[in-house]
UniProtKB/TrEMBL annotation:
Domain of life (superkingdom): Bacteria
InterPro entries, sorted: KH_dom-like_a/b (IPR015946), OsmC/Ohr_fam (IPR003718), OsmC/Ohrsf (IPR036102), OsmC_Ohr_Peroxiredoxin (IPR052707)
Name of this protein: OsmC family peroxiredoxin
PANTHER family noted in UniProt: OSMC_OHR FAMILY PROTEIN, OSMOTICALLY INDUCIBLE FAMILY PROTEIN
Organism field: Duganella lactea
Length: 146
């Protein structure tokens, strides 16, 4: 099955002289799509970006985290495992302009269902995650079931 996604990114960082010099423009931009709230983006502060805005590296990490979470919740619902809370303290490492790895650390609270199966379903969610299947670096998963 094919899915198509479309959005727009609009640069908002022109200080009046455009990109006349490396230090003469902001890295600010808006990520938008019809019917959705815009996301305020910039580059990482190490690359002259605004630390109060989301950068592409954070958005990639968030995408991997959210994709895993959504697959996991789906699999738990199908397996009769009742998840009442899910929180992930994910981290990613980048070196030489490429990601080396992402580590997902989901902490999941279940009210009903098999704890061992709840733990194993993280492996299945990882196998099904579209983001994990699309990147060329490892995404590790270190779950805790409560």
């Amino acid at each position: 099955m094919k899915h198509h996604y479309k959005l727009n990114v609009t640069w908002t960082g022109n200080r009046g002289s455009g990109t006349s010099g490396y230090r003469d423009y902001e890295r600010d931009h808006l990520i938008g799509a019809p019917g959705k709230t815009a996301i305020a983006g910039s580059s990482d502060p190490a690359f002259r970006g605004d630390a109060t805005r989301w950068n592409p590296e954070e958005l990639l990490l968030a995408s991997a985290c959210a994709c895993h979470q959504l697959w996991y919740l789906h699999l738990c619902a199908d397996a009769g495992i009742v998840v009442t809370a899910y929180e992930d303290e994910a981290e990613g490492d980048m070196r030489d302009e490429r990601f080396e790895r992402i580590a997902l650390r989901p902490r999941v609270t279940i009210a009903a269902g098999d704890r061992a199966l709840a733990l194993q379903l993280h492996h299945t969610a990882h196998q099904k995650c579209y983001i994990a299947n699309s990147v060329n670096f490892p995404i590790l998963c270190e779950p805790v079931i409560v």
